């Protein structure tokens, strides 16, 4: 009768324990625990040896055990109430950036899309579900701001309320983005310009980025001695045509058009020829939008980049620093970057429109 001894089958990753890691690394179980939790300083050599063993064995600490060890849930909440007038592709870029950045810090993301307002923040903070909170779609007078100042969990806003004191905020500098559009058109010789903005409901909600873009646009035009108007615009083809008709009715001399409404961009370029205006010979057009959208349009659009990925990364980084007790700046404003493309050109006095 054969007495062959077969080697033990290797453990699956979900069967590997912290004891296995300690034995493989030649250290105590408590040392592995300290490496995982960061609760006690461990020498670089020992830490690297433990991490190498974790990698070789494929060890994944149980989320509950990890949370108990660090007193953290290893989850952050992303509060994104889905409301009318929001452009989902750009929002999803931000969400993806937040999720990707959070995973680099070994955190998952709980996405909260219900419009619960202050009550939702209090509910999530009172639970043990999350370590911190990211808040999007920030209004100028946001009812969540006072709650965030007193919240027991650290928070970061992706956007700025009118009163940002006591809050940590990060976003594109939309005021400067609006001004940069005007400066670009002014540099090309345009003196009559217009802004085609977000849907009316976005302004009615007092959403911060929309108001700041419009203010930056109009203030820069006034500073440079240019004639300027600003018009909200819904996203359908018919709404875009009606908005452009209002633009030229208000000022038939408009030769420079900035669009801060990603969903309307393609319609703008389709409607202008119907109104007897070619791009860029009669009207120069630029947009505040992601590069991917600007480059996919014909002609390719001059644009101010919405840096969704960078904003998401910065927001997570700020939140993690707050969780670890490090100081962070109250305001992080990303400078706008404008890329000229074929949709804008010099305006010559007397040129046909």
List the helices and strands and how they pair.
Blueprint lengths: L17 H8 L3 H9 L6 H14 L5 H8 L4 E5 L8 H17 L3 E5 L4 H10 L5 E4 L9 H6 L4 E4 L10 E4 L1 H14 L4 E5 L3 H5 L3 H16 L3 E5 L5 H14 L5 E4 L5 H10 L9 E6 L1 H6 L5 E4 L2 H16 L7 E4 L3 E2 L14
Parallel strand pairs: 1-2, 1-3, 3-4, 4-5, 5-11, 6-7, 6-8, 8-9, 9-10
Antiparallel strand pairs: 10-12
Helix pairs in contact: 1-2, 1-3, 5-14, 8-10, 11-12
Quick synopsis:
Helix content is 43%, strand content 15%. The chain is of the alpha/beta class. The protein has 3 domains: 13-70, lambda repressor-like DNA-binding domains (434 Repressor (Amino-terminal Domain), Orthogonal Bundle); 75-172 and 308-334, Response regulator (Rossmann fold), CATH 3.40.50; 174-306, Response regulator (Rossmann fold), CATH 3.40.50.2300.
Relevant terms:
353 residues, alpha/beta, 434 Repressor (Amino-terminal Domain), Rossmann fold, 3 domains, six-stranded parallel β-sheet, six-stranded mixed β-sheet, 12 strands, disordered N terminus
Protein model, in words:
Helix content is 43%, strand content 15%. 40% of the residues are buried. Residues 1-9 and 64-70 have low confidence and may be disordered. The protein is an alpha/beta fold and 353 residues long. It contains 14 helices and twelve strands. Strands 2-1-3-4-5-11 form a six-stranded parallel β-sheet, sandwiched between helices. The chain has three domains: 13-70, Orthogonal Bundle (434 Repressor (Amino-terminal Domain)); 75-172 and 308-334, Response regulator (Rossmann fold, 3-Layer(aba) Sandwich); 174-306, Rossmann fold (3-Layer(aba) Sandwich), CATH 3.40.50.2300. α1 (18-25) packs across α3.
């Amino acid at each position: 009768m054969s007495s062959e001894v077969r080697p033990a089958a290797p453990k699956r990753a979900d069967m590997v324990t912290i004891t296995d890691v300690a034995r493989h690394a030649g250290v105590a179980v408590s040392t592995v625990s300290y490496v995982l939790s960061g609760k006690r300083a461990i020498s670089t050599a020992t830490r690297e040896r433990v991490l190498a063993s974790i990698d070789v064995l494929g060890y994944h600490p149980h989320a509950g055990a990890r949370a108990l060890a660090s007193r953290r849930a290893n989850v952050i909440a992303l509060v994104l109430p889905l409301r009318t007038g929001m452009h989902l592709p750009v929002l999803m870029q931000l969400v993806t950036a937040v999720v990707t950045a959070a995973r680099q810090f070994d955190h998952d993301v709980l996405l909260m899309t219900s419009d619960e307002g202050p009550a939702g923040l209090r509910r999530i903070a009172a639970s043990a579900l999350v370590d911190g909170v990211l808040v999007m779609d920030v209004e100028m007078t946001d009812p969540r701001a006072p709650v965030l100042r007193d919240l027991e969990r650290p928070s970061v806003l992706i956007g700025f309320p009118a009163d940002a004191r006591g809050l940590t905020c990060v976003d594109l500098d939309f005021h400067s983005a609006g001004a940069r559009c005007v400066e670009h058109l002014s540099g090309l010789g345009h003196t009559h310009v217009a802004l085609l903005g977000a849907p009316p409901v976005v302004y009615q909600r007092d959403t911060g980025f929309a108001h700041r873009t419009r203010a930056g646009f109009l203030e820069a035009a006034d500073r440079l001695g240019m004639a300027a108007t600003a018009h909200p615009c819904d996203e359908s083809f018919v709404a875009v045509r009606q908005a452009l008709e209002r633009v030229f009715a208000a000022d038939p001399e408009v030769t420079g058009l900035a669009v801060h409404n990603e969903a309307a961009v393609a319609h703008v370029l389709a409607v202008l020829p119907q109104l007897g205006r070619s791009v860029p010979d009669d009207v120069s057009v630029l947009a505040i939008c992601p590069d991917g959208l600007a480059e996919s349009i014909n002609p390719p659009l001059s644009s101010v980049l919405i840096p969704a990925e960078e904003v998401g990364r910065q927001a997570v980084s700020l939140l993690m620093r707050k969780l670890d007790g490090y100081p962070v700046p109250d305001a992080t404003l990303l400078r706008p970057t404008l890329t000229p493309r074929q949709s804008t050109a010099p305006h010559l006095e007397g040129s046909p429109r």
